[in-house]
Amino acid sequence: MSQATTAAPFTPEQQKELQGWTTYYPYPIMGLLEAMRSVQTWHRCIKPEDVVYLAELFKTSVSHVHQVATFFPMFTQRPAGKHRFGICHGLSCAIAGSNKISKCLEKTLGVREHETTADGAFSWEEMECIGACDFAPALLVDEHLKGKATEEAVAKLAKELK
Amino acid sequence: MTKILTQHFDNPKYHELETYRSLGGYEALAKARNMTPQAVADEVKKSNLRGLGGAGFPTGMKWGTVPPVEKAPERFVVTNADESEPGCFKDRVLMTLAPHQMIEGLLIACHAIQAKWGFIFIRGEYADQYDVLKKAIAEMEAAGLSGDVKVRLMRGAGAYICGLDTALLETMEGKKAWPRQPPPFPTVAGLMAKPTVVNNVETLSMLPHIVANGGQWFADIGFKGDPEKKLNPSGGTAVFSISGDVEKPGVYEFPMGTPLKTAIEAAGGVKGGRKLKCVIPGGTSTPPLTAEEVGMSMDFDHPRAFGTFLGAGGIVVLDETRDMVEVAHNIERFLAHESCGQCTPCREGSEWTTRILERIMEGGGVEADLPNLQRVGENITGKVICALGDTVGVVVRGYMKKFPDDFKKRIPTPTAPANPLPAAAGAQSAERRDAIPQK
Q1: Which residues pair with B315 in a beta bridge?
Q2: Which residues of chain B fall short of a pLDDT of 50?
Q3: A127 and B125 in contact by Cβ < 8 A?
Q4: For residue B314, how many other CB atoms are within 10 A of its CB?
Q5: CATH code, A83-161
Q6: C-beta atoms of B87 and A91 within 8 A
Q7: Are B323 and B309 contacting, i.e. CB atoms less than 8 angstroms apart?
Q8: Where residue A6 falls among pLDDT bands split at 50, 70, 90?
Q9: A30–B173 C-beta distance less than 8 A
Q10: Burial B320-351 (b: 16+ CB within 10 A, else e)
């Protein structure tokens, strides 16, 4: 790895993990998606300096990494909450009342969709079908299915995860 | 009733290697490895297994287009576990309860096309299933079952379009998920330009059973085709996801050729004893059926006559209280959001269609809207790179054709004033940046 002109935005352990993604698959570039996921988990967003670092690590252009960072909904440009709540508004969940849960999330967490609470703990978003139509309206927290969303379930999770 | 994939679902430890093996698991893999790759592929051809991720392409035929190993020694098998079609959750359940069934199928496919890498691309939102698979792969490797194949997981990052094979491959190559325009097809030039077979979770899960019992057994279970009526066979069974206005949403396995109404009855019928209005047969990308059409046979060919297709078997049941303009809007909004943006007709047409439907929903519909929706749809379908764009045009026209009254009643006649209807359950919030003020 050549010397970056600015200090790397990652700890030595994090750098080691990112390096690992360049050898996990048969071709180094295939590790970019998972590496970016690691960055999103640590920084809760993909910062410009992260993009530069990844471009150098994966031997590709900043433009390429930026395209990936801005295409996929999981990656954000500003910090998401430490815990991301997702309420599905696909068809089966919409007809089961997902709209009510959206309003409940806004009220309980105190922020609008895609905004993050001041303490950085929470953000929420309406999601497209998360493959849990049997639990409509389905609630996802940090990519884990939390079953059927109710106002009580939302309040309980908000309290537990704070 | 024959159950192939779900037969052991009541066993709470079926996801564990020891239990899976005690019930015959991984014996088919051993049998396959003692057969030539061609012999395995021939059984799959004979079985009439068709892709269960939505396209229904004959699996044996797809494998047959992979170039010979002398010409192209490096090749891959990719499991498409990016299930994102609204209404579908059978892959989620299959991976949770029977991960080894899928892994065994993946290894059989690797043997059949002589691939040394088997990938599982799983949507990021299936974090629990990712954990289950990680554990199962480790068990499988520790038991020395992987042979000369390396199995690797990769997680998606929230894009529906990654369920499309070429977009999935772009994503695996570390790029944004823009679909490719074949030819070349992935089996010729796929992942990193190498021959790649992309198969759905459920399709791969069928392979151990086909190898164990023979292709003919599988073909006999399903719909054997009707050459006179130009209907091709669909082998074996399919696992259907049933949701919406039903008493018991869940996954249900039926032989190909089972009537749709059998599936609805198995799920307890319409919830609350209400009247059935509409059934979506294969996920929201498939055009809808009216209540009179539920006798339709569920295989890959009969649905054509009803103007729809089997897709990935995501059955959504809608009762008499549901409004089809709102349903069509929900689906078009989804497609507009998920459009990758590459093709102008889809990128612009999906947003346009969604806004017209929103305006109609809020009482601002005008006479030109319905022919306009028709025209916009016609100018997208068939004029774009991938099936998502095709779907944008097909869906709205499908709802207008089968449920014209729901649309017509929202459009004021020239002599009557506009009459905004009260917002029904599930209607979207009016707080959008382009909200049309009510008259």
Answers
A1: B242
A2: 416-417, 419, 423-426, 430
A3: yes
A4: 31
A5: 3.40.30.10
A6: yes
A7: no
A8: low
A9: yes
A10: eebbbbbbbbbbbbbbbebbbebbebbbbbbb
Average pLDDT over residues A112-139: 97
Per-residue pLDDT of B16-25, as tens digits, reads 999 999 999 9
- pLDDT at position B425, please? 45
- Per-residue pLDDT of A40-75, as tens digits, reads 999 999 999 999 999 999 999 999 999 999 999 999
A110: helix, coil or strand? coil
Nearest CA in chain B to A67: B176
Choose among B80, B72, B151: nearest CA to B114: B72
ipTM of the complex, rounded to two decimals: 0.96
- Could you give the 3-state DSSP secondary structure of residue B14? coil
**Sign of the C-alpha dihedral, residues B93, B97, B103, B108?**
negative
Question: B291 by DSSP, 3-state: which?
Answer: helix
Coil vs helix vs strand at A4: coil
Which residues from chain A sit within 8 angstroms of residue B126, using beta carbons?
Answer: 131, 143
Sheet of B150-155: strands edge to edge?
A: B150-155, B117-122, B76-81, B196-200
- Residue B412 has a pLDDT of 82
**Could you report the per-residue pLDDT of A53-62, keeping only the tens digit for each?**
999 999 999 9
Q: Which residues of chain B does A26 touch, with a Cβ-Cβ cutoff of 8 Å? A: 117, 192
- Token pair, residue A73, equals 């909904």
- Kindly determine whether residue B316 and residue A86, on different chains, have CB atoms separated by under 8 Å: no
Question: Can you tell me the distance from the alpha carbon of B201 to that of B106, in angstroms, rounded to the nearest whole number?
Answer: 9
Q: Token match 């088997």: residue?
A: B118
Cα separation, A72 vs B130, in Å, equals: 19
User: C-alpha distances in angstroms, B172 versus A56, A144, B46, B94, B162?
Assistant: 19, 23, 31, 23, 9
- Kind of pairing, strands B250-255 and A83-88? unpaired
pTM of the predicted structure, to 2 decimals: 0.94
Q: What is the mean pLDDT of chain B?
A: 95
Of A71, A94, A128, the CB nearest to B426: A94
Q: What is the pLDDT of residue B426?
A: 47
**In this predicted structure, what is the pLDDT of residue B424?**
47
d(CA B81, CA A135): 20
Question: Are A133 and A92 contacting, i.e. CB atoms less than 8 angstroms apart?
Answer: yes
For residue B248, the SS3 value is coil
Name the residue ranges covered by the structural domains of chain A: 12-71, 83-161
* Buried b / exposed e along B40-49 (16+ C-beta atoms within 10 A): bbbbbbbbbb
Nearest to B158 among A30, A72, A145 (CB): A72
C-alpha B143/C-alpha A70 separation (Å) is 41
* Residue of B419 and A130 predicted with greater confidence: A130
Determine whether the interchain pair A133/B173 forms a contact, defined as Cβ–Cβ distance below 8 Å: no
CB contact (8 A) between residue B126 and residue A131: yes
* CB distance A87 to A137 below 8 Å: yes
- Amino acid, single-letter form, for residue B336: A
Range list of H helices, B192-304: 201-213, 215-221, 260-266
Q: For residues B286 and B311, is the Cβ–Cβ distance under 8 A? A: yes
